Amino acid sequence: MIPGMSGDPQVYLNGEFTPLSQAKVSVLDRGFIFGDGIYEVVPVYGRKPFRMGHHLARLRRSLEAVRIANPHDQAGWEDLVGKLIATSDAPDQIVYLQVTRGVARRDHAFPADAVPTVFGMATPFAWPGAELREQGVRAVSMPDERWLHCEIKSTSLLGNVLARQFAVDRDAVETVMFRDGFLSEGSSSNVWVVKNGVLVAPERNHLILEGIRYGFIQEMAAARGIPLEMRKIAQAEVEAADELMLSSATKEILPIVSLDGKPVGAGRPGPVYAQLRQSYDEAIAALARRVG
């Protein structure tokens, strides 16, 4: 039994579906040796992928950025995601996709003839609990010490792992990171700031991984008439925020009510979060009801 996993679900590996316990890759796979690969996470609600076109576009951008040949076209990826969804009875799922550069003799330079390794699996969606959604979460902060290509959804996640463990060790849900005195992101989420009713997010660049919810929250804010700015955000602005929020595929949108042991704003979820949460829930409910 794999820690944290139940049963033995069917997974996809290099053109075949197989039980997870029997899925094997070579120890010379560059994903294992170098972390030389990329990944994508597609949420599924009511057995329907959420903004899959956006997820596949980011997958393509990451592959191009690290010069791994894309093993599927758009239709091929959509077909694979559909087949992965069918491996699970759960209506709400997380589909995980990973592509590495493949198996080759250990050498830092790109191998000329390696065939990409493609892996995929679907797992039930562990929804954020009602307590987290309604009462908010604690966060801590630390300097962002990761590399300078955070826009690539790389499997080389050691910096993120260390930042996430920094939060766990302090009984917090997330670590908010700052680079040179400005907000970058969380260990596995984007971070949003609210001040005087204005929603502010870090500008899209190589210092953050732009979550698919970036554009989605931008759309919801526009629909609700919430002013939105995307710009550099000083650490002092974060510390003085009326509201803080985090967003990711697995955490959706959650309010941060404590940062480094100090209350954020009034120390409870705020009105901008409440509006976005309502819009989010309505959108997901509509997706789950949609036919086709």
TrEMBL record:
Q: Which UniProt keywords apply?
A: Aminotransferase, Pyridoxal phosphate, Transferase
Tell me one Pfam family matched here: Aminotran_4
Q: Give the record's family classification.
A: Belongs to the class-IV pyridoxal-phosphate-dependent aminotransferase family.
Q: What is its EC number?
A: 2.6.1.21
* InterPro entries, per the entry: Aminotrans_IV, Aminotransferase-like, BCAT-like_C, BCAT-like_N, Class-IV_PLP-Dep_Aminotrnsfr
List the GO biological process terms: amino acid biosynthetic process; carboxylic acid biosynthetic process
Q: Name one GO molecular function term.
A: D-alanine-2-oxoglutarate aminotransferase activity
In Swiss-Prot or TrEMBL terms, this protein is called: D-alanine aminotransferase
Q: Which cofactor does it need?
A: pyridoxal 5'-phosphate
The keyword Transferase is annotated on this UniProt entry: yes
Give GO cellular component annotations, separated by semicolons.
Answer: cytosol
Can you name the source organism? Answer: Pigmentiphaga humi
